[in-house]
Amino acid sequence: MYYGRATDKLVQEQGECGGVITAVLIAAVEQKLVDGALVIKRGESIYDGAPYFATTKEEITEAAGSLHCAPTLSAKLIKNDFNGARDLRIAVTCKPCDARAIIELSKRNQIDLDNVYMIGVNCGGTMLPGPAREMIRQFFDIDPEDVVKEEIDKGKLIIITKDGQHKELSIDDLEAEGYGRRTNCQRCEYNIPRMADLACGNWGVIGDDAGKVTFVEVRTEKGQKLLDTAIAAGAITLKDAPPQGIALREKLDGIMVKMARKAMATQFAQFDGERKFERLFAQFDKCDGCRECIDVCPICSCVECFTKQEFVVPKDTVPPDPMFHLTRLMHVSPSCVNCGQCENVCPKKIPLATITHMVQSSVQGTLGYVPGQSTADAIPLCKIAEVKA
Amino acid sequence: MSQAEDATEMDERQWEPSILTFCCNWCSYAGADGAGTARMQYPPNARVIRVMCTGRINPLFIVKGFLAGADMVMVLGCHFGDCHYLKGNYACDMRMSYLKAYLQAIGINPERLYWDQISASEGIKFTETMRNVVAKAKALGPIANEIGAYAHGTRQNRSILGMSVFDACANGAGENGSTTQEIAEDIW
After folding, report:
1. Whole-angstrom Cα distance, residue A204 to residue A322?
2. Contact criterion met (CB < 8 Å) for A277 and B108
């Protein structure tokens, strides 16, 4: 575990905390370790972030810095638009859910993990652009377009405006009002991307270094390769992280996990109790059957979808037959990485991710499977092949 | 329609659980056959579907069974080590434990799913199991208590697994007394 810093002055400034990730990406592309970097590039404002395949130093530098209002998911993008990274090597910046989704897809032979270098970034949660704008107008009382930078730190949402004003509000308070992070992020127990090749972030940086260096943890051989390439190219400098820093990072992680468990309990409680089935279907019956949730889901990757079989789900009824949702739940919930995409794209605002996560928390005990942690453990319902006969 | 009303009235007076039963071709179906040939008496609530192996049972068939109005679903397979296809029953065992947790999560009592192993020679065990399960189903009450109107298939309205005989029944075919209806009545 190291503290790292980019050597290039421009990268240092553009980057969030010392610019290690930007520098590593640039080195990886320039030293031909990868063909390009899949990054999130800022568009018009801080509410506008889109995935971008950068292949030059300039393009990567442009995408430096973090965005908290761009809840994208790169896993399905790699599968669909980059042919599962089968014929090119990609370095990708990942939130923990991105990394978990990529691992789940690689287990399903949809992504060639050998060609994907995952640079994980700590993530305390992301916000949807629309509600974020509304929240800033309402609670901070400033024009959302004036905000030039936002940061989530120590349970607070901090925003910085054009004229240099700093404002902060407690995330707990915002979430009590129904704003703040996406609901799936509130429930997320994975804030440090330990499943990625490199786990980076600002947690655990203490003393004079605060804000100037990035905490880097090497998780895999590929991660080591990325760092070695960057060091050989002279792009970053590393020093060992102090033990207090490491302890602080663990502590922060612990606090976030506790908060997540609390959020889980409160959010799942809305469905608990009598007539649970009907209460779930009060939500599901809003469905139009647009199948958007299936399109974005990083777990749904079957060529022939079971819900398209007419004997399971009769065609062309609105709302779709209950079997549509029950099939989706059964197929997705053991492996759901809680990325929240289904919920975000749903035109009817059905709390799909919440329900899937709830089912997952119920079946997890039986299956003993935590999705997206490593490629070593098989997908639960495929394990049968290994059973002693 | 009048038929449906009759059924409801009958339900209120005397409700009998319907139990969807999946039997494996090699063991438990033969066991049931054995019970039949030996003229052993057991309650007639089960509707048996024969599958080649319990490993073929997609857990969603069972979920669909509940939606189609089955009050309990019973899965009967071979004993471990006896599977004709070596490990189909291991697969089933794993899926059933997963399915129970899943049913719990979606608000269906996991007790409504019964999974047991009955070999070809265990006709007696088959009749005993059947009696126990019917008693259990009666104690649990109709599925509609848990999933309400989603149990459309309570006798008339929906098909189980899209099987044509039930479909015909659902469409009210044979109100004029065709054979399909007779068959369907026999089954339901």
Report:
1. 47
2. yes
Q: How far is residue A333's CA from residue A330's CA, in Å, rounded to a whole number? A: 6
pLDDT tens for A322-365 read 999 999 999 999 999 999 999 999 999 999 999 999 999 999 98
ipTM of the complex: 0.88
Domain ranges within chain B, ordered by starting residue: 16-142
Instruction: Find residues 326-385 of chain A whose CB sits inside 8 Å of chain B.
Output: 326-327, 329-330, 333-334, 358-359, 362-363, 365-367, 380-381, 383-384
By C-alpha distance, the chain A residue nearest B59 is A330
Coil, strand or helix at B186: helix
3-state SS, residue A157: strand
State how far the Cα of A359 lies from the Cα of B108, in Å rounded to an integer. Answer: 12
**In the A/B pair of chains, how many CB contacts fall below 8 A?**
84
Nearest to A85 by CA among A63, A100, A103: A103
Given the candidates 3.30.420.40, 3.40.50.300, 3.40.190.10, 3.40.50.960, the CATH classification of the domain at B16-142 is 3.40.50.960
Tell me which chain B residues have a C-beta less than 8 angstroms from the C-beta of A334. Answer: 98
